[in-house]
Amino acid sequence: MSSLFSISWLPSSLQSSDWLLSLQSFMEQGGQVLWWLGAVVLLSWVLVVERVMFLYFQYPQMRKEWLNQWHARKEQHSWYALSIRESWIAQAHMALNQNLNMIKVLVAICPMLGLLGTVTGMISVFDVMANQGSSNPKLMASGISLATLPTMAGMVAALAGMFVHARLAKACQLREIKLEKSLRSQR
């Protein structure tokens, strides 16, 4: 199992890093479920970074373009003009909320993977107890580690993810409200 996740493919300068060795040791102690959890957490944080980059770089340009087009219109009260404005608000809503549901689902998966790690770790402990007896606690320690580390990591990942998701959702909602107010205001 450890050969599957070895770090031999990394450059030697990164391999000698203490943090990387500590991370690899932690992941190996937690078992395969911890690697799956790490992949879910990595994917969720990639989506979070994408949303932050969108909010600070791409969305302001889109907003500016919509506002310029709206204020450049001579006529803003016809059904056609109001339909265009509502279309832009709907486009902003879709663009701002893109990937937020996926982040929410990934955050919800984290504690479930932690629980899966608990179950697999306890199965390992019971397997050791059945084969070796319950008199040697050192043999059971690795199973206990397999049971507790993914649970802890899943909970920490879920708490951090819930906080970040809530902040992103609020930031997107505020930007949408500001755009709508700006588009509803007169020249």
Please tell me about this protein's structure.
It is a multi-pass membrane protein. This protein has 187 residues and is mostly helical. The protein has one domain (31-185). The protein has 6 helices and no strands. Helix 4 packs antiparallel against helix 6 (137-184). The chain is rod-shaped, with a radius of gyration of 25 Å.
Features of the shown structure:
mainly alpha; 84% helix; 0% strand; 187 residues
Count the DSSP helices: 6
Which outline best applies?
rod-shaped
Q: Return the domain count.
A: 1
Q: Give start-end ranges of low-pLDDT stretches.
A: none
Rounded to an integer, what's the Rg over CA atoms?
A: 25 Å
Main beta sheet: none
Count every beta strand, where a strand is a DSSP E run of 2 or more residues. 0
Q: Mean of the pLDDT scores?
A: 86
Distance between the termini: 66 Å
Structural class: mainly alpha
